[in-house]
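Continuing the batch. This is chain 6 of the set; chains 1 through 5 are on the previous pages. Same settings as before, nothing changed between runs. Recording input and output for traceability.
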Amino acid sequence: DTDHALSSKQRRAIKKINEAKRKARSELPLERWTRYGLAEGTEQFCRINEKNDTVQRIDADTVSQKSFVERFEKPGIPVIIRNATKGWPAHEHWTKDSLLDKYGEELFKIGEDDDGYPVKVKLKHYMRYLSTAPADDSPLYIFDSSFGDHAVKKGLRADYVVPKYFEDDLFRYAPDKRRPPYRWFVMGPARSGTGIHIDPLGTSAWNALIAGRKRWCLFHPSTPKDAVKVPRGYDSEGATWFAKKYPLTQDPSWPYRPLEFIQEAGDTVFVPCGWHHVVLNISDTVAITQNFASVTNFHIVWPRTVRGRPKLSQRWMMRLKDLRPEVAAIADLPKDKDDIPWSSSSSSSSSSSSS
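Output for chain 6:
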């Protein structure tokens, strides 16, 4: 009876996962989720070009907020922060067993359908999918932004604190109902991840990894958007990018040098506004990531929000004038250009986020 019950549960999980796959990527028949055979070469995704790993590592215990702003945020330099997650309950609460026990019956977003509606699966079904070590080229990836407002999933919010460098998120003054998605609980197996993108509205981002390993590749904001796209004819998944585009970036004649590194459990990555980045999980991972507007990047975020989210910008400015007049004043400063000063691309209106 137990065997039969388990097999029926397994069948139900497979059915739910396949339904989600069809909705999230309707252009891709189920049998073609393994068409590139990337699972057979997973080792290739774990190796980076050490010459391109020039990112600095800093200790949150020894670098002050003021120093961080001057050294990294103002000049727009990515950095890996150690010890920013020290003491977080997430380290104990976000194990697979613990998450399954507390949130197994809850729905988590793994994509969007053709009409832009979220595609969700129960965590217990997703966990069964993970346990099979899926051979999909780019497996389904939990990327859930609604957890903080959900009756049960909001418990995740108590398991971490925003690192000190990113506490002053100016979007917290925006009206809740109009605020764009800005925080994501993310979880996925090897080869899941996000394709090349720039974070939306000129925001910067941080990504704290609780379990597993992630591979990152970033390109300076001056890099043309078209130069880092996946070659024509391929999908835009992160695994496809590393398999089909990354080798081209290693050619000595390639003009845009990437910044690449492996993020280990406990590392928090800071991605300044405007940087193109692609992120690939190289093992089962669990992480939290947030986009933010700060005093440092407000002069970039503000004009983009006015253009992209005009109603939000009006309400946001009313509250800033009342509660943070010194920030509101930045919007009135004369400027030659409202784009990222070192960028040749205005593609930061992209709607993706850092995973």
